[in-house]
Specification:
globular; single chain; about 160 residues; 4 strands; alpha/beta
Length: about 160
């Protein structure tokens, strides 16, 4: 799995964050049978930048934790094609820190969760209905569990 990670202007590179994101994307690729030539593009940013993107692309003028842009959304393209850019992921590191504190776990666990969550959105999972939400949360916890990011209380199963 190719993961291209970039940082918004003024953001410092962090090899630990990059390793976590790469591990999560690799595990999603393994579990869902993606090709090693397939690619995710990841932008790490602050709340200001993600709010700007959220406003522009979703019409919501507020910061969010993560945005997912599937390149084949609505198309007949499939993950069976090798060497394709699957989509773009944008993660607010500020919101990641806020949520880690809110959910009472560490920053790295929250970063891993948001990465897996976004990867699954790009693969077609969603949480618009209670049934879809339950399925997506089960998939997230499965992948995170494989990586050792386990939470006994699983706060995302609300």
């Amino acid at each position: 799995m190719i993961v291209s990670i970039s940082y918004d202007e003024g953001m410092e590179q962090n090899s630990t964050y990059e390793e976590v994101i790469q591990r999560c994307c690799n595990e999603v690729a393994r579990v869902y049978g993606l090709h090693e030539e397939d690619e995710y593009s990841v932008l790490l940013c602050n709340n200001r930048k993600i709010q700007e993107l959220n406003r522009e692309y979703r019409g919501k003028d507020m910061p969010t934790d993560v945005l997912s842009f599937a390149l084949n959304e609505g198309d007949e393209a499939s993950i069976e094609e090798e060497g394709q850019l699957l989509g773009d992921i944008v993660i607010s590191l500020e919101r990641t820190a806020e949520q880690a504190k809110e959910y009472n776990h560490d920053f790295i666990r929250e970063l891993a969760y948001l990465t897996v969550h976004s990867c699954l959105h790009i693969l077609g999972y969603d949480h618009m209905t209670d049934e879809d939400k339950k399925e997506m949360r089960t998939e997230e916890e499965f992948v995170l569990g494989n990586l050792g990011y386990v939470r006994e209380d699983m706060p995302y199963n609300e």
